Amino acid sequence: MNWKHKDLLDIESLSDHEIRHIFSTSSRFIEINSRSIKKVPILKGKSVVLFFAEPSTRTKTSFDMAAKRLSADSFSLATSGSSLKKGESLKDTVLTLEAMKPDAIVIRHSLSGSAAFVAEHLQCSVINAGDGWHAHPTQALLDGFTLNRIWEDFSGKTILILGDIAHSRVARSDIKLFSRLGCTVRICAPRTLLPARAETWPVKVFNDLNQACREVDAIISLRLQLERQKAGLLPDIREYAARFCLSRRHVELAAPGVKIMHPGPMNRGIEIASDLADSRDSLILDQVESGVAVRMALLYLYLAGSKTEQELPEG
Amino acid sequence: MARMIIRNTVLNQKKGFLLLEDDRIMAFQEGEPGDSSSCKLYDGRGYHLLPSLIDVHVHLREPGFEYKEDINSGLKAAAGGGFGQVLAMANTNPVNDNASVTRLMLEKASWHHPHGPFVHPVGALTRNLEGKELAPLAELKEAGCRAFSNDGLPVRDNELFRRALEYASDLEMVVIDHCEDPCLAGDGVMNEGKISSYLGLKGIPDTAETLQVARDILLAAQLDTPVHLAHISSGKSVELIAWAKQKSIPVTAETCPHYLVWDEEQVQGYNTMAKVNPPLRTRQDTSALQDALRQGVIDIIATDHAPHADFEKQVPFAQAPNGISGLDTALSLCLGLVRKNVFELKDLARLMASSPGKIFGLPANSFQPGDPADFILVDPEHQWPVNAQTMLSKGKNTPCQGDMLQGRVMAHFMAGKEIFSRI
Ligand SMILES: [Zn+2]
Question: Which of A121, B78, B181, B312 has the most CB atoms in a 10 Å sphere around its CB?
Answer without folding.
Answer: B78
